[in-house]
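Sorry to interrupt, but I need a hand with the structure work. Go ahead and set the record down below:
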Amino acid sequence: MEVHVDIDRLSQELETLASFTDSPPPSVTRVLYTPTDLKAREYLKGLCREAGLEVREDPLGNTFARWAGEDPQAGAVGTGSHIDAIPHAGRYDGTVGVLGGLEALRALKSAGFRPKRSLELLIFTSEEPTRFGIGCLGSRLLSGALSPEAARALRDSEGVGLEEARRQAGFGGELGRVPLPQGYYSAFVELHIEQGPLLEREGLPLGLVTAIAAPAAGWFELEGQGGHAGAVLMPDRKDAFTAAAELALAVEQAARESGSPDTVATTGICEVFPGAVNSIPSRVRLSLDLRDTRLETRDRAFAQIQQHAERIRRERGVEVRYTPTNADPPARCGLQVLEALRHAAQACGLPYLEMVSRAYHDSLFMARIAPTAMLFIPCKNGWSHRPDEYASPEHIEQGVRVLAHALAELAGS
C-alpha cells in the first residue's frame, strides 16, 4: 500500500496550533482549561471533523476522533498524544503525535485503506503537571490509575478544584464515566519527539520504544532553626538549607550509584523560608523526581536516598519528612505493537533504534489497559520543553508514514 503524507499541510497545522499560546512566539504556553487551551481544542476538533472522523469528549476533556471499522464491536486501534504545554515550551512535544496521528489516518483514507477494527485518534487532557501538579491526568483516569475520588481532591495553586475548573471549561458529567471499559483498545501507538539526543547522535530517523520509565516523585520538608545570620555561631546552627543542599547531592549520588544507566534523579524545586539574606533558613521544601525503567533499581535508589536523609537528620539536628506525590511502575511495551512498528519501518525502508523512553508519557498508563508502544523521531540536539525545540519536516513525515503502516497492520483490512 502506497501511503502519502501531506507534510506541507501537517507543517502548517503545527504552526497554526503553536499560535494558540499565552507566551510570546516562538515559545508555547498552553495550560489546562485556559481559554487558549480551549481554543486549541476547538481547532483540532474542527480538523478531525473535516477528515470525516466522529468526535466525542469525555467529562475530563479527553477527546476521541474515530474512523469506524468494518467490525465496530472489536477493540479499536488508538493513536494520539497531548497538546498542553508547560510555560515557555516548544511546538512539537505532544503535538506531533496528535496532528501526526490525524495525518496518518488521513493518509490511510487517501490510500483507500478500509480498516477492520476502528481507528481512533485520542487527544489526552493534561499530560503536563503544570496546573494540578500531577502529570498524565487524562490517561491516569482513562486507565484507572487515578480514581475519580482522588481526581476530585486535586487543587491548583490558586485553590481551584478540578471539578470547578473542568465545569467552568464546559466539561460536565461524572468523572466515574472517564475510565475506559475492558477491551476498548486492542492496541495503542504514540508518536512523539524523542526529547533526548540519541537518535540524532546515531543518525537514525526512528526509535522504537521497548520500555517507558516512570517517576517516584514527592517532597522532602526539612525543618531546622532560624536565627540572625550574624548572631548565631556556626557550631550552634541547624540550617535547613545546607541540610537540603546535602540531601540534593545525596539524591544525585544515589542515581549515579544505582547500577542502572536508566536511573535519573532530579531536585528541581527548592523553596527556602524565610528567604532573607541575613536570616538562617529555618525550613526548606525540596522536590524529588526519581525515574528508571526498572522498578527494583528505582526502589533501591530511593532506599539509599532515605538512608542519606536519616543520616542528615541525625548529623545536622534537623527534622526531615518525605511526602510522596506518586510512585508509578514503569511499563514494558507490547510485543505485538512493536512488531507492527518493525514491519512498518522495514516497509518504508527506514532504519531504527530500539530504545527506552526516559521521559514518561500517556502511553505509560495506556499500557495498563492495552498493548502499547511508542515511536520516536529525532529532535534537534535532544532539546525539548523550550522554545527552540525542533523536529524537521523530513523526520516528521517519516514518523507519520511509519505510524500509518503500523496502524494499518494493527487494524487489519
Remarks:
- Residues 295-316 form the longest helix (22 residues).
- The chain has a mean pLDDT of 97.
